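mind reviewing these tokens:
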Amino acid sequence: MFYVFSVLFWWIFAAFAIGLIWGWLTWSRNPADSWTSGWLKWALVAFVVGLILAWLTLARGRLGFGLESGLFMFAFFIVGCILGGWLKGLVAADKVSPAASAAGTAAGLLATKGVDDSRGGVAVAATAASVAPKLIASDTAGSTGSKPIGIAAADNGVADDLKVIKGVGPKNEKILNDLGVFHWCQIAAWTPDNAVWMGHHMSFPGRIERENWISQANILCAGGDTEHSKGVKSGTIKADDAPLSDVELAMQKSELDAKTKAAAEQLAADQAKKAADLAAVATENAAAGNAAAQKAKLAAEGSAATLKANSTSGNVSGDHAGTKPLGIVAPEGGTADDLKLIDGIGPKNEKILRDLGIYHFCQIAAWTPENAEWMGHHMAFPGRIEREDWIAQANVLCAGGTPGGGGLDAAKAAQAEADALNAAPPLPDEDKHEGKRPPGLKSARGGTGDNLKLIKGIGPQNESRLHGLGIWHFDQIAAWTHDQVVWVGSYLAFPGRIDRENWIAQAIELAVVKNTESAHRDAEPSKK
């Protein structure tokens, strides 16, 4: 044996070096999975058989010498693999925070901020008492992108079958589970940075985006199905981890585009119906008076000498986007309308409008979208006039009606103006997203925000992200327009989910309940 070692020293050394490199390259945090599977399992069987043959001296001469030489080189190759993996493990361990090292990967929990959001309205969450102690620090050091948050265990102990996502097979599903990803809605909530991190961690950068894992998860999270998921569930398709071919990608893109188009068409139909209903209400209110005649009279006045020159408060465009509306020198008949009857206008906003020559409901009713845009910027709350339907309300009041059964009370007016002063600052790159960002608040009113998690579809993670956008209260979500819904969905990387899960309808209901409860509390006599 010593003779074989001395004669083949450099061959044996080469085998050891190759093993060292191979161990370093193939090291995993779950090495036990690879020591009993694949080629190595059969190589170990062959090694044991070779040892038996050598021990029984069944192979003699050149055959015996070759057998002993092969056994020597393979043994040193294995030693090199083990040593290479051990060294790689030491290097990787240095990149893991102390908290992560203490908790260990055996827990399979790799998140720090709590559980993820709900699955189609059913919370994907465990109680804080049972989850929090098991969470370990996120080891994003040296990684590209941002590691997604994982959860301690599957909701109610039952994980979703992630293999119904095309591109996810048994191996990829296990990696995801080891990272605390058990549900489709978790993947649906991934940001682009999360996808980048996962792609690098799973050693196939770009594949998650290319194979549309997040879009597929969105459909599954909403209770829908893809052709692949139907096949896997029925057993006609066997899920595997192989990358999708160009043909499969093209077919998948066609299917997802069709589903997205159908969802968009349904949303457009719903919005059209809503617009038609509002138009019908406006027509009915207009019948109470001759709004058209009053608008025509106002337009005629606009060309007369009674119109205040635009230069008195700035030029037509001023320093703002849009077009400045025309003002008048003094209120018609010497009496101005009470503009505070418009929901969203308080004493301060009324004064600003009058300084610009706006004294009557019919003036606001005649505003164009460009006028509304200019006024929104001038009054330092862009988008609010459209969101609060000042023009529609003014139309009703101009016709002699009363919007919503009454005007804005002093408390609500004061709150609206306080919100304008507490407006959240712009976000980096917010203009890069489709739609329009909804107005946010720098801090919650009174220092305490509503429990947004009462909206099915919003969990701790999404609540925190909404807070980052300045969204603290039900009535803020209830007031979102379609463009704002599109923007939030794009910014938070779950397009379509807000409409699908009816966040706005839920927020309206919760805001009404909250206001009702508040009114009841205010009406109760104090108890000592």
Notes: Residues 106 and 178 are 9 Å apart (CA to CA). Confidence is low (pLDDT under 50) at residues 28-37, 93-142, 288-293, 299-318.
